[in-house]
Amino acid sequence: MTEVAVAEASMVVEESIERQGEFLIAVLQDIQEHYNYLPEAALQEVAARLDIPLRDVYGVATFYRSFSLAPKGEHIVTVCLGTACHVRGGARIVEALARELEIEAGETTPDLEFTLETVNCLGCCAIGPIVVVDGEYHGEMTAQGAVNLVRKIQKAERV
Amino acid sequence: MSRITIDGIEIDAPEGWTVLETARFLGLEIPTLCYVEGLSPWGGCRLCTVEIGQGERTKLVTACTYPVEEGLVVRTATKRVVEARKLILELLIAQCPTSKRLQDLAAQMGVQEVRFKPKWENCIYCGLCVRMCEEQMMAKALGFVDRGNKLRISTPFDKSSEECRRCGGCMYICPACTLRCEGAQPEEVLCGRCESSTQPTCLEVHDNYACWMGLTGDCGTCVKEGAEK
Questions:
Q1: Predicted TM-score of the model (pTM)
Q2: ipTM value
Q3: Architecture of domain A75-158
Q4: Cys-Cys crosslink for A73: which of A15, A56, A115, B21, Cβ 3.0 to 4.6 Å?
Q5: Chain A, 7-66: which have a CB under 8 Å from a chain B CB?
């Protein structure tokens, strides 16, 4: 990491601690929101400022699925593969999206535009299969419908 | 002081003692693996399982973490306890058949077969190295990373840690890597050779997991410089 990046991480962490107090997970969530992932420099900064061993910070950061140590895409596409969504074709949606974006589930496109994720249940099984794009829920989704959602974002970006 | 009963023996145990400490005080034998004096009790390996309670309402608990309480009735060698321990040891051996400590325990406890598919891993997640590093070596270089079936023990970012002083405490305490058993084979996971021979057969076994500062990084705890992850 460059010096500039380390200075930025330091600032992000400091601001977050001022806002959240000395709560590790809350601070990590702030960092994740700022960067879309948890950079190494930021985690080291957190460990130093909160006086928590780095190995514990790292342990927490790797324990929770909502934290990521690798950069995530700008748009996060989550497909539910819970039982109800699965029987209604959730797996087909993942396949279609994987083909469209040319990545596997859990990966990020090289241009850092999209991350494709799967989740095991979102708790709204009645409207399954569900696809969540940037926090917005789309119920009764089809493979083609999901691909269209992604294309719409790509089109909007290009304009 | 709390008056408890262990295997029919009544004893006044001081406040703060665990069932394991009390049983050892009485000279009763309870097998342990992840319990080491001088490190905090962990309750991870479950080998020190004992039965508490009376009549219909008994349950199995780990002796190393269960504090004594007034009127507690403990039994350390019932059929249920012995069978539970054997099952636990079978699972541990299936995870890491190359551990001499586990193979020795199997011989001691009379485990005759391992009914699970061996996984040939080199870690049983007993957490001894993590506690050793933190509590005795004051380094906190090692920790648990990830979770569930991806759980492993490593240094932050899988890099050589600045806190690590290469003391080797983690290797010294490890029940899986320091003493390796070469008797475990895919067709017969249990070794038992030490049991039938007066000459220990495995003391000369060395591989990258028993590195003792060859620093190959294979054991996954201290140094990973250049190792692909």
A1: 0.82
A2: 0.81
A3: 3-Layer(aba) Sandwich (3.40)
A4: A115
A5: 40, 43, 53-59, 62-63
